[in-house]
Amino acid sequence: QSVPQQKLLTWLSVLECVEVFAEMGTARVWGEMGRWTIIVIIQLAKALLRLLLLLWYKAGIQTSPPIVPLNREQQQPLHPQDMEDNSSGKDQTYVGKRSSRVVRSLQSTPSLQSRHWGSPQQREESQSRRAEEMNQPPTPLGLQETVAESIYITRPLLHLLSLGLWGQRSWKPWLLSAVLDISSLSLLSDLKDLNRRERAELRRRTILLLYYLLRSPFYDRYSEGRILFLLRLLADYVPGVGYVTRPLMDYLPAWQKIYFYNWG
């Protein structure tokens, strides 16, 4: 990835990290009008950054989060003692004569800070496989797939526009958003030979379709009573589950009202 592309991904990651805080803080300070203003600004900025990555830098299917979090366990450097042992040429493993099992030799046992469970070969294979997955180039998109990804990127803006035209109680914004999400996934379903991150992203988008059960007006008219009834039933009749479901019942209405939690 080029430096400008990496900067765009960084800014996109920052926006996704602060969007909920910005919405809640603006609503507290400037009220409902300020809340919707910051929502439009953030969604517009995210769409512009994603379209730039898609059309200019050919970034392919964009994942969420844009930058993969660093796995510090995988990136953990060797302890100086371990480096000395490696440089001294000590055998790291011992192969059993009868069982053929590979075990770590006592002389090459690493320090406690860098110790891990498993043979050195397993760790090296895992690290090399993860490095290959991280360095895999994005799958080239044809015209159909580019249109599908563009639909997914612009869906939040079209949803906000439809909210402004028809209001939050109308079914039209909910239906428009659902049609756009399903259309994007349908057009992308023909893609083959996706890398691991891209397949995971498409699975994530498919699972997120369940959010339409929690989005207004469907939630207000159909889902709310049934979900709360199910949670209350579990809390009353399944021992121990109430410690999870009762706080969830209290939290769900507040979560549902925050735009970036259920529509972002």
UniProtKB/TrEMBL annotation:
Residues 74-141 are annotated as: Disordered. It holds the Pfam family Pex16. Residues 105-116 have a biased composition (Polar residues). Transmembrane segments: none annotated. Keywords: Peroxisome, Peroxisome biogenesis. GO terms for cellular component: peroxisomal membrane. Residues 122-133 have a biased composition (Basic and acidic residues). InterPro entries: Pex16. It is found in: Peroxisome membrane. Belongs to the peroxin-16 family. This is Peroxisomal membrane protein PEX16. It comes from Cuculus canorus (Common cuckoo).
